Amino acid sequence: MLADLGLSPPLGGWYNTAGVIVVLLTVSLLYRLGRDDGGPPMMAETIPFLSNMIAVVTKPVPFWDRALKMMQRLKTDIIRFRLGRVPVYVIVGDKKTNVLFRMNTGFSVKRVHNTFVGVMFGPSKEDQVRWLADTSGREKKRLPEGEHVEDIDRIWLRLHNSLHEYLLRTKPTDDLATWFFTNFIARTTKLLPLGKSTDMLIWDFIRYNQTDVAGRALAGDLVFDMNPGYIDTMRKFDAALLPVAFGPPRWVRPQPHIDREAFLAMNLQWMTKALALFDWDSPAASSSGWEPIFGSPLIRSIVRWGLEIGLSTQSISGICGIQLSGQNGNSVPASAWCILHALTSSDPDLLPNLTAESHAALKVDPTTGAHSFDLHKLISSPWLQAIYTETLRTKLTHSVIRDADIDTTLDGTKIPKGAMVYAPMPIAHNNPVWAVPGHPPQEFWPGAISHPPSNPSLERKSGSSP
User: Fold this and answer.
1) Is 0.70 surpassed by the pTM of this model?
2) Which of 8, 31, 87, 134 could hold 48 in an S-S bridge, CB 3.0 to 4.6 Å?
3) Domains and CATH numbers, the chain
4) DSSP single-letter state for residue 434
């Protein structure tokens, strides 16, 4: 079994010994005896404390599908499994999930934040101590436990302010989107000339070209020009986060750790050179526009803040690198899926209407003939909204995660201190509530926009959030 999981090379042959077999049998017996404690049903696993942990971090889609089928079979909205030694409660439904977003319920994101600060950003040890000591929250008003935190050490607030300023406000967001669209159209036109048929692998085209242009829009040219293979390394980094954070130790599965460190090293190399080249007294430093070393005002804002509060170059580079990873980790696969669904959908209305909406938002400069889009008109187009929403509903694999800081209850279920609560999107999004006659919830079907079901309560509304 261990060999089947790909664990035999780093483990050698010691697991074949009689002593280890006895240990495994004992652990298995204790594990099974501990399951019948009157709590929610427990997901089975072949190797206690290990099988489910490996499954959830390496193959989350089939794992959550198995969890959903178990919940449906047992007609329950809460089950359990173990992430190593940590008990995890899997929930579905508004009644339970909404509690996770309320204050003073005994649940927090501390463990997730603390784990991912070190895993994702890779800060220096000194900066990680400062980061984890910031218990004041990201709002202007401090959380009660963070009243003692000095203004300069309110790291979550300062980072949140930069993200809010440059990713949520209309003008900076429009500027970023315009830069991306202008350059992506230019690249696409060059690689795929109009009127000329071309054979292409959609995923490869989107993965490399969209990521490259979107990444340059956000962080400039320098990081891509000086790091060949950056896009592939970033993709491996994204896949490594869960295994490094919650998977088996490095000696069991070293590759995710190697992939993570390679991406962090590239970002450190970029930041070291960028800080040596960039002139903070130049007009570019305070400009709202794009420049090639740091790209957008967002990255310049994060770098300036990091320098002001004394973060190391290593920490600053990690924070900026995770902005690039976060920007592309979801949007690039979503774009590819939207295109694939548009080309392969059995709904005959989908592709013609998507084409019509795109043409309606297209603008042509009468002088130069250059093409661009009316972005606000484009993103508000009903069919584009429908296919985008269905892509998110059927393809997202993230979970809302909270930790129990104290012994507490969740809709009548006892949750012990130290346990984790997961509200997985694949389970919520494949819930039978989304079923429409002739269209099960697992099916990609944006057709509700033109083929509403006879029962209005079952309608999947375009643009609504699952």
Assistant:
1) yes
2) 31
3) 8-103+396-458 (3.30.43.20), 111-174+195-327 (no CATH)
4) G
